[in-house]
Amino acid sequence: MKYLSKRNLLIVLIAAATAYFYSKDGSVTTSVVSTATSFALPLALAAMVGIMCERTGIVNIGIEGTLLTSAFVAFFVSSLTSNILLGLAASIAVGSLLGLLLAVMAVTWKMDQIIAGTIINILATGLTSFLYVQGRTIPSTFPEYDIPKLMNLPFFGPVLFMHGPLFYFGLFVILSLYVALFKTTWGLRSRAVGEHPSSADTAGVSVARLRYINVAIAGAIGGLTGSFLSLELVGSFERGFTAGKGFTALALMIFGRWNPLGALAAAMMFGMTQAYANQLMIDQVIQIPTQFIGVLPYILTIIVLAISAGKVRPPAAEGQPYEKADA
Amino acid sequence: MSDTKKKGFDLGNWMIPIIAVAIAMFIAGIMMKLQGADPISAYKTLFTTSFGSVAGFSATLGKATPLVLSGLAVTIGLRAGLFNIGAQGQLISGALATAWAGYALTGLPAFIHLPIALAFGIFFGGFVGYIAGALKAYRGVHEVITTIMLNSIIMALSDYLVVYHFREPGQLLTRTSEIQKSARLPFIFSLPLGFFIAIACAVLAWWIMTNTTSGFRFETVGRNKFAAWYAGISVKRTLVMAMMISGGIAGLGGAVETLGVTYRFEPAFNAGLGFDGITIALLGRAHPLGIIPGAILIGGMRAGASNMQFVAGVATELVDLLMALILFLVTAPLVTRFFKNTTSKSVTGGW
Questions:
Q1: CB pair distance less than 8 Å for B335 and A244
Q2: For a disulfide at A271, which of A8, A40, A54, A286, Cβ 3.0-4.6 Å?
Q3: CA distance B303 to B64
Q4: A163 sits in which H/E element
């Protein structure tokens, strides 16, 4: 009975629907799900940023700003140096710097964390739109690398094994974060700091240090996500490029119960909805005014949260600065 | 509580925003220098354009009007422990609804038409606020996420409505017809009337905050939900009310912009006004009167930006950068003094 929750039912339903469509028209379904996967991965990765932070008790509402800044840096460093690897490195560095900035504001200055994150968002918008230069290009995007043998699998081949390198790396990050969070000492400590910092402190874990490290690593993951968006998925950058993905990611984190695999499943659900809607539009089964196509994820976010937010329990110490008790 | 209020007028407290603005301008100046522009000439053009003449100052106040209101909207949310990032969406709904009432209702005298058009803006802005407030109070969905999502949804919805339903007949541009003369906000001694409405709202909000039970309820919920609940205040109702009022004020901001400046609705007109409200509210230390100088400053920068681009060759986005820097510089001390005692839990708690 443990696995028969509403959300698992939803996953089963979507899987069943996909299997049905696949039996009817294999190639279209495969391409739809493949699109959904590339759509879902950056969202899932961005949700990892939130999970990393919140599991140690830091609310990170600045994911959007981290993605925007790192996508910007990735694109322009690649463009200026004609080297996408340098762009990737720079974006990961900038991502972790923004993570450190959040840590300084939230841990050291004990600021309101929602406001700290908002500052990162507004700073990101201001900087990227001021420094933005029109008409630049990058030498190339990260090329697709099809994994030999596995790519020939029916359905799963194109869906999972025919992507660019950052896709595989992102997937690897998500899976390792799951293992790290629930099967390692670091993960246990991180979760303890997020749930009950004073106990963790008593047990000899440095709350501030662990929060700093985790928020910085989370920032680096945000940087990777930004690179994935601008250097692999899209290959360009415009003002307001990330279009709210950072906020959607927070919803996925909540819907996935602060669990990396849960968030990945939630992101996949989002991706599928978007990809199917697009496909139905192409097939002219449904007619949606163009204005509403991009809005679907936002409406879904609100619905998903209205269903799940009150029922899930966030890490207990989330959003609270930790003050050592006086001896 | 009265302690914080006194602090609002404390000179020492007021130095922080001023210093923050100075440092932000210095940093932005260095960035302009790096881009090869002349920061002195840029700042000179920026501020002589917006504060150097009566016409310029009138334009500045026109720009500042919706900013006072969106700043006030964010302030009222903060007072009740809510972070309303949705002023943008609420403002746009208000602007569109008002524009419709302004051009579609005909044959009314100004003293009836004008209030009706304003009421449309307040109502629709308030309704959008209500959605976020109800989701927060009854479903536990954090207002930061819902309001951001609603911003995008409303942006798309308003675009759709203008394209398919409210477009000016025979017009290729995405915009509504011009509002009737009877719905226009007049100028008083070449200063926009809307500005005085905005100031009146800020004063009224301040008076309600400090002198009425409803104001006290707001503040108590903002400071400590549990204490408020224990004192018999309906926390959920207060949260919904706060978001509704906050949205209504943002909607009014859109309404005065439509009736006093733009005279019609066009999706690009109101971009960013709601987001500026966040900076202004924090710059004014979440004080209903404290937001006014910040709104005038930022209104001035917005009013002078295009002339600055023309003369000094600096992108208008400089203003966004300046605001981000100011916000960053001003919030660190702000929080240690104002928000820390509010307990961070009250703003960020409960997704």
A1: no
A2: A40
A3: 9
A4: strand A162-163
Instruction: Please list every residue in chain A whose beta carbon sits closer than 8 Å to the beta carbon of residue B318.
Output: 130
Residues B55/B190, Cβ–Cβ less than 8 Å: yes
Residue at A32 is within a domain: no
**How high is the pLDDT of residue A60?**
93
Q: Give the domain CATH number at A227.
A: 1.10.3470
Give me the phi and psi of B15, to 5 degrees please.
-65, -35
With beta carbons less than 8 A apart as the criterion, state whether B292 and B203 touch. Answer: no
- Residue A3 confidence (pLDDT): 57
* CATH ID of B2-342, from 3.40.50, 1.10.287, 1.10.3470, 3.40.1000: 1.10.3470
Q: Band of the pLDDT at B187, cuts 50, 70, 90?
A: confident
Q: What is the pLDDT of residues B42-101, one digit of tens each?
A: 899 888 888 888 888 888 998 899 999 999 999 999 999 888 888 999 999 999 999 999
Residue A103 belongs to a domain = yes
From A195, A211, A194, A268, select the one nearest A45 (Cα to Cα).
A268
Structural domain span for residue A292: 37-132+160-311
Q: CB-CB: which of A105, A110, A295 is closest to B152?
A: A295
Q: Is A3 part of a structural domain of the chain?
A: no
| Separation in Å, CA of A132 to nearest CA in chain B | 9
Confidence band, pLDDT 50/70/90 cuts, at residue A6:
low
Determine the Cα–Cα distance for residues B246 and B252; give it in Å rounded to an integer: 10
Tell me if A254 is assigned to some domain. yes
Which residues, 6+ apart, have CB-to-CB distance to A55 below 8 Å?
A181, A190, A191, A194, A214, A258, A315
